[in-house]
Amino acid sequence: MASMLLRPAAAASSWASRLGARPLSVTAPLQAQVQTKSKKTLARPGVKNIVLVEGVRTPFLLSGTTYADMMPHDLARAALQGLLNRTGIPRDAVDYIIYGTVIQEVKTSNVAREASLGAGFSDKIPAHTVTMACISSNQAMTSAVGLIAAGQCDAVVAGGVEFMSDVPIRHSRKMRKTMLSLNKAKTLGQRLSLIGSIRLAHLSPELPAVAEFSTAETMGHSADRLAAAFGVSRLEQDEFALRSHSLAKKAQDGGLLEDVISFKVPGRDIVSKDNGIRPSSMEQMGKLKPAFVKPHGTVTAANSSFLTDGASAVLIMSEEKALAMGFKPKAYLRDFVYVSQDPKDQLLLGPTYATPKVLERSGLSLSDIDVFEFHEAFAGQIMANLKAMDSDWFAQTYMGRKSKVGAPPMEKFNSWGGSLSLGHPFGATGCRLVTTVAHRLKREGGQYGLVAACAAGGQGHAMVVEAYPQ
């Protein structure tokens, strides 16, 4: 596979022929109509039922806009306060708090602790921060599930935050070494000698990059190569991006995005809506030039997720504790898996590998799933995953499986928009996905939902969510 993906033009025709080269329709109805089905529950004797009680998020905003003067823990605190306000849970009734984030603010390295204290939670509640790239809040949630399943806790708050408006920018390594040595220098002569050693080149800053450390390749380049390898056209990508924005706009206007809380930004206005939802036209999108592989790439600013600021939070409890406290849960959190592949050539294929594994753990098939919510890093990444999932050849050649798992029906897929339109704060998206599944299951009358996402490092996650009986 490596040699194929390193030659996108040749790979496109080769893979396209093996995968059938048929375009996947992304023009399904804007509102899925899922019929209620009678299915068995995934509850198991002797296994504790764990429930999602509530989920909220701040509006997801384009970086550099209204949140620009804040800090990550400010957003995380707002999400936590929103969760407290919506649930009414006493601030000392939570046993543990876990937050996910990717690019950490050095002043608040354990953002979970700082945000929880700021939100008014008891200082007796432990809190820790996790990072797993774009599935960081997924990891926060499943860590919460593990604590409850193990009997350590009954109520855990999980969440995630990302703040791309102000990321840490470091001095060069040589400058850092000089500054550290200056701090240790004992005499004036030593200090002057160190200052005299500074050169203009030492002053060049090190800027953070959304790139793989092991390959030095940006995710956009990987998405472009993946789209080429699977024969995903620019037209398909633009159509999918337009679908995402159109569905998100319809959901926003229809009041379906009920997990969004209003938030008064200090010194500025109250923010109550995501601001990256911008339906365009195929003609306008077609005018944009490739953003990564120039001049012949197909990934553009219009069919990629954008840098986003935002935070999310969910309350996860044992069913027994939730009912005892008078809560009406939204959904059961059932089976989940994490997967990992080659970060060079299968960086963004997490959903393809994770979906069949989580279905097997649950004893379900793809047709049993009523609601799909997949993370949309790039339209090309989503389309490549859908084609891989629908290919017997890929399943047999790269996954060691006898047959394909199948592609999700588009009428059940991301029907309220996705990361391309709603935004993607790296550490916060997982909670949005799970909360959206719970809300869609209730509104659409479905029983099972499936969340899946890719992440840097070639990793991925999938979870089965079951509707709570109404």
Automatic annotation (TrEMBL):
GO cellular component: endoplasmic reticulum; mitochondrial fatty acid beta-oxidation multienzyme complex; mitochondrial inner membrane; mitochondrial outer membrane
Record flagged with keyword Acetylation: yes
Pathway participation: Lipid metabolism; fatty acid beta-oxidation
Enzyme Commission identifier(s): 2.3.1.155, 2.3.1.16
Database matches in Gene3D superfamilies: 3.40.47.10
Subcellular localization, as worded in the UniProt entry: Endoplasmic reticulum; Mitochondrion inner membrane; Mitochondrion outer membrane
Domain of life, per lineage: Eukaryota
GO molecular function, a single term: acetyl-CoA C-acyltransferase activity
Known role: Mitochondrial trifunctional enzyme catalyzes the last three of the four reactions of the mitochondrial beta-oxidation pathway. The mitochondrial beta-oxidation pathway is the major energy-producing process in tissues and is performed through four consecutive reactions breaking down fatty acids into acetyl-CoA. Among the enzymes involved in this pathway, the trifunctional enzyme exhibits specificity for long-chain fatty acids.
Description of how the protein assembles with itself and partners: Heterotetramer of 2 alpha/HADHA and 2 beta/HADHB subunits; forms the mitochondrial trifunctional enzyme. Also purified as higher order heterooligomers including a 4 alpha/HADHA and 4 beta/HADHB heterooligomer which physiological significance remains unclear. The mitochondrial trifunctional enzyme interacts with MTLN. Interacts with RSAD2/viperin.
Protein name (Swiss-Prot/TrEMBL): Trifunctional enzyme subunit beta, mitochondrial
Native source organism of the sequence: Oryzias melastigma
